[in-house]
Amino acid sequence: MSMDAVFKALADPTRRQLLDNLHARNGQTLNALCKEMGMTRQGVSKHLAILEEANLVVTRRRGREKEHYLNPAPIAEIADRWIGKFEQGRLRALADLKKRLEGPSDE
Amino acid sequence: MSMDAVFKALADPTRRQLLDNLHARNGQTLNALCKEMGMTRQGVSKHLAILEEANLVVTRRRGREKEHYLNPAPIAEIADRWIGKFEQGRLRALADLKKRLEGPSDE
DNA sequence: TATATAGGCAACTAATTGGTTGCCTGTCAA
DNA sequence: TTGACAGGCAACCAATTAGTTGCCTATATA
Description:
Two copies of one chain form a homodimer.
Chain A: H1 3-10, H2 13-24, H3 30-36, H4 41-53, E1 57-62, E2 65-70, H5 73-87, H6 90-102
Antiparallel strand pairs in A: 1-2
Helix pairs in contact in A: 1-4
Chain A binds a DNA duplex (30 and 30 nucleotides) through helix 4.
Protein name (chains A, B): DNA-binding transcriptional regulator, ArsR family
Organism (chains A, B): Mesorhizobium muleiense
Keywords (chains A, B): DNA-binding
């Protein structure tokens, strides 16, 4: 679960979209995820493998199906240990204020 | 300043190290940054160009020198608008994950 | 059992990336 | 004015990556 693997996994828009899909509906199978991506099953499978390698997605076998679950822990770790250091001070306060004014939202 | 450019810029360990260097001492020139990286000047220059493209670094010409400054705004934006979404349901998701992953499994 | 379904593995291609070397421009200072 | 210094531009190379196609195994079900 190296930090580099997480950053690299997050660098691809297709993989971020996969995380978004799982965030919207957790536990989807490979074929279910394929239908939302304009890509072959094998293409999606490779991206999922990279997300698994970064521990951003964990899976569970259910018979012949494989359920994919989002694991937000590595993202939280990055936010805490790396991004936090660049957010300190005034910008952090502004971001917080902005969030409060916009109210709690998923987007 | 697309989000994709920021993610891609952050994906490389050399570029993250450059940001760390600027975080430690802001306004360094290209040659100053080169001395801390085991790389040619042109290699560092390319990385800096990518960071500039993502607006993570802004520059100021001073005669024949070019000072590089860290701009934390895009990082704050990512943390606020994207990572926050996955951190929000962090505890709930982890509990949910734990529950689902319990039970008989061949992994 | 036979067949359709869910997924895995491997090879291959095309594009991108990280890094190099070589040369050029612009600026400062003796 | 002349040389040294800071940086930019472009070509090039090796390694990685995104995506494909083809074939394979395993499981569920008519």
